[in-house]
Amino acid sequence: MVDTEADKQEKLDRIVAEARRNREQREAGYREQALKMYPWVCGRCSREFTRANLYELTVHHRNHDHDYNPPDGSNWELLCLYCHDNEHSRYLEAGNMAKSEAAKRTTTHNPFATLKELLDKNPQE
Questions:
Q1: For a FRET experiment, which of 9, 48, 54, 59 has its CA 20 to 30 Å from that of 98?
Q2: How does pLDDT run across 23-46, given as a tens digit for each residue?
Q3: 74: number of CA atoms within 13 Å, CB side?
Q4: What whole-number distance in Å separates Cα of residue 65 and Cα of residue 30?
């Protein structure tokens, strides 16, 4: 049986809705706790927040593991949307740089290692 476009869209909608529900449930717990524990100030730029703009204050996981939420809040810091986005961009860039550095260190094959020998043995006439 072949899925129709409507079936595919319905399945995608269900997956997205479930992912959003899971994220909201996860965030509701630690976000509410963090907002009770910490002053409503961005940990980077020191911007202050009120109830009117509190939706712009996010909870950042210091170790980047959103499932690690100790009750003492030691893995959290409050960041404004802009600083939070900047932090994740820097983290991704650092990860990509680390991967490229690791690739440089582990690359050992040199496809031209014996090229000079081959050319010397078979000079073109």
A1: 59
A2: 777 666 888 889 989 999 999 999
A3: 3
A4: 13
Q: Is 59 helix (H, G, I), strand (E, B) or coil?
A: strand
Quote the domain boundaries for residue 76.
5-121
Please list the ranges in the chain whose pLDDT falls under 50: none
Q: Quick check: 41 and 49 in contact, CB under 8 A?
A: yes
The number of domains in the chain is 1
C-alpha angle 68/72/77, rounded to 5°?
Answer: 70
Among positive and negative, which fits the CA dihedral 98, 100, 105, 106?
positive
- Provide CB contacts within 8 A for 62, sequence distance 6+: 74, 75, 76, 77
